[in-house]
Specification:
Blueprint (H helix, E strand, L loop, with lengths): L6 E9 L6 H10 L4 E3 L34 E3 L6 E2 L8 H6 L2 H16 L13 E6 L3 H7 L7 H5 L3 H11 L6 E4 L5 H14 L5 E8 L5 H8 L24 E9 H6 L6 E10 L11 H14 L7 E5 L6 H15 L7 E4 L2 H4 L6 H15 L1 E2 L19 E3 L4 E2 L6 E7 L4 E9 L13 E7 L2 H15 L7 H11 L5 E7 L2 H14 L16 E5 L11 H6 L1 H18 L3 H7 L7 H21 L6 E4 L3 H9 L4 H16 L5 E6 L3 H4 L9 E8 L2 E7 H13 L4 E3 L15 H7 L11 E4 L4 E2 L8 H9 L4 H10 L4 E5 L5 H8 L7 E4 L11 H11 L29 E2 L48 H13 L20 H14 L8 H6 L4 H11 L17
């Protein structure tokens, strides 16, 4: 590591006036639009605090009436009160008490991390740093001066430090976490600290942010009284019309990494921070006035440490507030460095001309502009460039305002950004274009695109957003975009996966999935414990020409394992089973090759899934499927299994083809009387309560078939060459037993459900020579074995084979209330799509498993590409007017009818208590009472709180809320006595757990007695 290692900007998100995200921000800048507007009514009554300009031009600003401002305009972001508290596990009542800046930072941080092609959960537990520049804390002024309303929530919902700490807490980031207030330079100072932390190896990722919200007219009044406020509410930097500051707000987050790390991970890079620096004005001509010499020294120092001179700088994003003094001093300081430049002029601009001075977010607003300019290789024009202030002599200083966009040349280009604080804290940064990286993808590679969200409604919105974005992407990026979605968009509980071999199909299927999103099932999230996966291996009869060819083409891992097992089979079969299968050779349907072929594809499928992290804890095999099951369980070596299945198939193939198999819709006990006196018939398989297979002599089987047809019993002839698992197989049993004699006799490493015994292997039971010999003629007792498997609590069963045969059987064997998920590795029909492995991985993921997606993609396709970030729910709203203390009002968060409002004063905790209980008293059941109290403490909509919801993760119950819930329960159920907090915490995983705990404490199940008044619920 070099001392001054470059730092990459790998992700960003922002909201500024007139721009809801980075894309709209760039459009605003390139179009040169004005983002200012009249003060929204939500903020304050602009007319009430506005005084017209003095009648006499000679009047000074001191003549303006106290408590009044000179403007009714500014730069305001849309919907600052909107938030998605449930997404972050924050209770509505807590969210309503939080400074909206904290809410904005949380959502902006999540989106910026996704923009960096990372899943935010991937950073959980890492030493990721959070550095937030913040200047305003007006929410605290509005709430903490109303002493009667103050609760613990307001304490944790306010304070500069919480801006950073909220992000670190809710995203579980363990690196440095701090808020910085150096006035207007706060956010660029935060970037400087983040850069130094990365260089010092305190963290490997850093979030550098800035935020500003205008909630009261206080600063407007101060600017007006100090003569700093522009009457039209607009900053006009370096313009002859410059007459002061126009205030603005916004929020932005950058994700930073060491450049070497980002390039090693092939992460897309917007731009590179080559050097940053900070200093202080010291004693100058006033604490609020800028110091030319300090600015000049800082800029010169940063350029020198970056190894650059003015000749290397192509454009400067200036502080540029539009005050006469500030513009003049900044032009002087820059001009001392650029005036002797050998090339053309340095482009000069300030984003404040577009929407105003964002104060705590001003520095990062300019930095994001510079980053995007380098990324797009275009510098946006400067508003008011047509009216340049001649007194600044910009041309003489080799500086120029851009009247139109400036296209940057190829190669490395450098830019600089300045931000100066009102108290004298200055910050400066030098950036460069990102190093060029070309990552070519395979043009025809398929992929599976994943989208996840917290709710079905959000899933639909995010599916549509992704579809719209993908419709504008290059066709050859399909696999890379899919791989990125697997990496970034796959951690939330409501899920949709779409496999496709081309982008137009993917876009269409994503839109179709959006229409079905309302029916999406929430992934369990571990409530039932860790997933327990079983592999079920299909028996003979499932084979078909070119089976699993799509797996071989589109899953490198499967192809590798099939090649390996084919090499082990070839000495015993005399041919390449792999080639016969992939070529669709009819010879592969004969028993001598069909059995090795089925074993080969099952072995390769199971090995590929296991390599992808879908590892079974138990296996079950139907007939020939037991051999691949035994290999997967560690009971057979692959080489031994290959020899045995090849020999088994060859022996059976030599038997006369004088038998058949018949599936009948009767129980085994109903079939057995039909076999009396027919010694060449037998029960071959019991697949369900009314699903039995008879096998044996063709003539005797035909007689049984005729008899059952007359009784109108459901019948189906199986397309097989021999009567497997029937008395006709007895001639090969002893020879096969001898073939198995030297096979290692060892216990399986996984639980094996034997379809010979109809149960799980127990104790010292092994799959020895006697077992494999007996397996040839014994009935396949699948129903009993599968029933035992399902009864043992398996959560997922994956059928391994070329056609879905066992999956429907398992569905019929499930007991009522059994939520086991069954999936199959093959397409239901014989003609599988070219991307069946991708489909299966998507289905596994939607079912709650976590496959290793990388196994589906070649190295060239594992390149991250930026996707649109998450679209949050904005239905929750909470705000408080800052018009005047006597008019201050708290608005409740907007939630559906039936929810308790966290802002309606009532009873003990005034501003935060929920409405009192109905006059009829409390519910008369423990479950209903617990549900009601949980909703009241958290401020949740009762219709959206369910028994399986986790109080901490889903409902936001931290220690403060747990203590409040404890007190409410004790008041509502006095017969319980004091509830030990340690007992409560131990039983607080879900709402249902808490209900069970309370019921257990109530003697004889006594119903809770309603207190005399509704105040008892606090």
């Amino acid at each position: 590591m070099t001392e001054r290692e470059p730092i990459a900007v790998v992700g960003l998100d922002c909201r500024f006036p007139g721009a809801r995200d980075a894309q709209e921000y760039w459009s605003l800048l390139m179009d040169g639009r004005d983002g200012t507007e009249r003060v929204p009514e939500q903020r304050w009554d602009a007319d009430r605090y506005h005084a017209p300009p003095p009648a006499s031009p000679q009047s000074t600003h001191e003549a303006r009436p106290p408590g009044r401002t000179n403007t009714v305009r500014g730069g305001f972001i849309a919907d600052p009160d909107a938030f998605d508290p449930a997404f972050f596990g924050i209770a509505p009542r807590e969210a309503a008490a939080m400074d909206p800046q904290q809410r904005l930072l949380l959502q902006c941080s999540w989106r910026a991390i996704e923009d960096a092609t990372l899943a935010p959960q991937e950073l959980a537990g890492t030493e990721t740093g959070v550095f937030v520049g913040v200047m305003a804390n007006e929410w605290a002024y509005l709430h903490l001066t109303d002493y009667d309303r103050i609760t613990a929530r307001y304490g944790s919902g306010n304070g500069y430090f919480m801006g950073a700490n909220r992000v670190s807490y809710h995203l579980d980031l363990r690196g440095p976490s701090l808020a910085v207030d150096t006035a207007c330079s706060s956010s660029l100072v935060a970037v400087h600290l983040a850069v130094n932390s990365l260089r010092a190896r305190e963290c490997d990722h850093a979030l550098a942010a800035g935020t500003n919200l205008i909630m009261t007219p206080v600063i407007n009044i101060f600017y007006a009284q100090a003569g700093l406020s522009a009457p039209d509410g607009r900053c006009k930097p370096f313009s002859a019309a410059a007459d002061g500051i126009g205030r603005a707000e916004g929020v932005a987050v950058l994700v930073l990494r060491r450049l070497s790390d980002a390039l090693a991970d092939r992460q897309p890079v917007y731009a590179v921070l080559q050097e940053t620096g900070i200093n202080q004005d010291g004693r100058s001509n006033g604490i609020t006035a800028p110091n030319r010499w300090a600015q000049q020294q800082l800029i010169e120092s940063v350029w020198r440490r970056a190894g650059l001179t003015a000749d290397d700088i192509r454009f400067v994003e200036a502080h540029g507030t539009g005050t006469l003094l500030g513009d003049f001093i900044e032009a002087q300081a820059l001009g001392e460095l650029t005036g002797g430049r050998s090339g053309g002029s340095v482009a000069l601009g300030s984003v404040k001309s577009n929407f105003g001075h964002a104060e705590g977010a001003a520095g990062i607003a300019g930095l994001v502009k510079a980053v995007l300019a380098l990324h797009h290789r275009t510098v946006p024009p400067s508003r008011f460039a047509d009216d340049e202030n001649p007194k600044l002599d910009l041309a003489g200083r080799r500086l120029s305002l851009l009247k139109s966009p400036l296209r940057l040349p190829s190669g490395t280009v450098h830019a600089a950004v300045s931000s100066f604080g009102m108290g004298g804290s200055n910050a400066h940064a030098v950036l460069a274009t990102a190093p060029r990286a070309v990552h070519r993808s395979r043009h025809t590679a398929p992929g599976v695109f994943t989208v996840s969200a917290r709710t079905p409604e959000r899933l639909r919105a995010n599916l549509l957003a992704q579809a719209d974005a993908l419709s504008r992407r290059p066709e050859n990026q399909l696999a890379q975009l899919c791989w990125t979605s697997n990496r970034v968009k796959s951690r939330l509980p409501h899920r949709a996966a779409v496999a496709a071999a081309d982008l137009p199909t993917l876009v269409a299927e994503l839109r179709a999935a959006a229409e079905r999103a309302g029916a999406s099932r929430k992934v369990d999230g571990g409530r039932r414990g860790a997933p327990s996966v079983a592999f079920a291996f299909t028996g003979q009869g499932a084979q078909h020409p070119r089976m699993t060819a799509s797996w071989y083409r589109s899953c490198p891992s499967y192809a590798r394992h099939l090649d390996e097992i084919d090499q082990l089979l070839a000495p015993h079969t005399g041919v390449s089973v792999r080639d016969l299968v992939l070529d669709g050779d009819a010879e592969a349907d004969r028993a001598r090759l069909a059995q090795p072929a089925l074993f080969a594809v099952q072995y390769a499928m199971a090995a590929a899934l296991d390599e992808a992290g879908i590892s079974p804890s138990s296996v079950i095999g139907h007939s020939i499927g037991e051999f691949a099951a035994a290999c997967t369980a560690g009971a057979l070596d692959a080489a031994d299994a290959a020899r045995l299945v090849a020999r088994r198939g060859a022996l059976m193939d030599k038997l006369p083809e004088d038998g058949g198999m018949l599936a009948v819709g009767l129980a085994a006990t109903e079939v057995e009387p039909l076999l009396s006196g027919r010694e060449r018939l037998g029960v071959a398989a019991v697949n369900g309560p009314h699903a039995t297979v008879i096998a044996g002599d063709a003539d005797q089987l035909a007689a049984v078939e005729k008899e059952l047809a007359e009784r109108e019993v459901s019948l189906r002839r199986l397309s097989v060459s021999h009567a497997f698992h029937s008395p006709l197989m007895r001639p090969v049993v002893e020879e096969f037993r001898r073939e198995c004699a030297d096979v290692s006799d060892r216990r399986p490493a996984l639980q094996v459900y034997s379809t010979v015994y109809g149960r799980a292997l127990t104790g010292e039971e092994t799959l020895d020579a006697a077992y494999w010999a007996r397996q040839i003629t014994e009935p396949v007792r699948f129903a009993e074995a599968a029933g035992a498997l399902l009864a043992d609590g398996v959560t997922h069963v994956v059928e391994i084979g070329p056609r879905a045969v066992l999956t429907p059987l398992l569905a019929r064997l499930r007991a009522d209330g059994d939520h086991t998920v069954s999936l199959h590795s093959a397409h239901p029909g014989e003609h599988a799509p070219a991307h069946r492995p991708q489909q299966l991985f998507g289905e596994l993921w939607c079912a709650g498993l976590t496959p290793d997606w990388s196994l589906l993609y070649a190295e060239a396709d594992r390149v991250p590409r930026r996707l649109p970030p998450y679209l949050f729910d904005d239905s929750f709203r909470s705000w408080r007017s800052g018009g005047a203390p006597e008019r201050a009002e708290a608005s409740a968060p907007t939630v559906p009818p039936g929810a308790d409002s966290p802002a309606v004063p009532s009873g003990a905790d005034r501003g935060e208590s929920c409405p009192p209980a109905p006059a009829a008293g409390l519910p008369d059941s423990v479950a209903a009472l617990t549900h009601q109290l949980v909703c009241r403490v958290g401020g949740h909509d009762p219709q959206r709180v369910h028994d399986h919801d986790r109080l901490h993760e889903d409902l936001g119950f931290d220690s403060i809320r747990v203590m409040e819930l404890k007190t409410r329960i004790e008041d509502a159920l006095p017969q319980l006595g004091p509830l030990p907090i340690e007992d409560l915490l131990a039983n607080l995983r879900t709402v249902a757990d808490l209900v069970g705990h309370l019921r257990g404490r109530l003697a004889d199940g006594a119903a809770p007695a309603a207190p005399a008044t509704s105040e008892g619920t606090r």
